[in-house]
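FAQ

Q: What does a record look like?
A: Structure on top, sequence underneath. For example:
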């Protein structure tokens, strides 16, 4: 239904209403205005923009585990490109459309190369970057009771392509574990031995965030990163627990006591030995049960021109 009013001068007012029967033709679409093609001056300073795009658009994507059937997971996608000084902006919907063209395919790090190539064809740019964040389930067997449960890991796939066409692949992976303080453990044992006092070492939920650059041509699965972190830290938090599992976990914590510095070096030793990993950094945070603050550490592989141990987002590591 349209509202048709007459202005004071007798001219008809703009019609209001939505015509659900209207069909867009190619000719009509070609005539629609495109502000990105406008010739007027760029607003503000005429300088390049390093990243512009869309963040947190969501869609279901298929992933192939190292073993087992394909799973479909909700993913959050951030895609950006660079804009030259003389360009007004970009058509952001093209970024989304370029990604949606691959929504029915099994998603991999290598798939990001094809997505980024389409970015650059649809949106002229020197640099392009896309991140896909999701929660990845893996079955975890309990320590002694034989029960199974799903452990979820925060994972981000990232692909970058620069002006020279060089493509790089990255994975961010979060691993949650328990850390028992070696100093507290020794003091508790001293209290028992010297004064017969029942004492317990303090331990706390902790998190390691691993960021790796995957070497050209290499295949690195999420399960591989989980295995590296488990081998390094040993005391991953548990999903399914009976009394025998809780006892086993207490024994694990007593066996693998560690400061936050130890945790970072233990993960370093695991990642440094994997030739599929070109570069990496590790950030660890122990959410102290003794102190009112957290204990943190960061370490990197030390590749010339590579990652630096510069990480100040420890609040995002809250478990």
């Amino acid at each position: 239904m349209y509202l048709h009013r007459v202005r004071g001068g007798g001219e008809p007012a703009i019609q209001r209403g939505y015509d659900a029967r209207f069909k867009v033709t190619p000719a009509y679409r070609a005539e629609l205005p495109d502000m990105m093609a406008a010739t007027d001056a760029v607003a503000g300073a005429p300088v390049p923009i390093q990243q512009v795009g869309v963040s947190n658009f969501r869609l279901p994507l298929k992933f192939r585990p190292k073993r087992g059937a394909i799973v479909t997971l909700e993913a959050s996608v951030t895609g950006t490109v660079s804009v030259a000084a003389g360009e007004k902006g970009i058509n952001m919907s093209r970024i989304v459309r370029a990604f949606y063209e691959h929504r029915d395919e099994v998603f991999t790090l290598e798939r990001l190369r094809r997505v980024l190539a389409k970015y650059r064809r649809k949106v002229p740019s020197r640099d392009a970057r896309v991140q896909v964040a999701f929660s990845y389930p893996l079955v975890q067997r309990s320590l002694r009771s034989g029960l199974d449960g799903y452990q979820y890991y925060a994972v981000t796939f990232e692909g970058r392509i620069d002006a020279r066409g060089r493509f790089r692949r990255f994975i961010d992976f979060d691993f949650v574990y328990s850390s028992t303080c070696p100093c507290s453990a020794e003091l508790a044992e001293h209290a028992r031995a010297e004064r017969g006092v029942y004492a317990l070492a303090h331990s706390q939920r902790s998190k390691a965030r691993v960021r790796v650059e995957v070497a050209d041509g290499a295949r690195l699965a999420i399960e591989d990163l989980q295995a590296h972190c488990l081998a390094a830290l040993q005391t991953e938090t548990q999903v399914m627990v009976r009394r025998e599992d809780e006892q086993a976990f207490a024994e694990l914590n007593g066996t693998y006591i560690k400061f936050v510095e130890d945790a970072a070096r233990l993960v370093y030793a695991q990642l440094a030995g994997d030739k599929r990993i070109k570069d990496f950094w590790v950030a660890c945070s122990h959410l102290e049960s003794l102190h009112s603050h957290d204990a943190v550490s960061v370490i990197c592989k030390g590749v010339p021109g590579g990652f630096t141990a510069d990480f100040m987002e420890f609040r995002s590591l809250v478990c």
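Q: Is there anything notable about this one?
A: Residues 142 and 241 are 7 Å apart (CA to CA).
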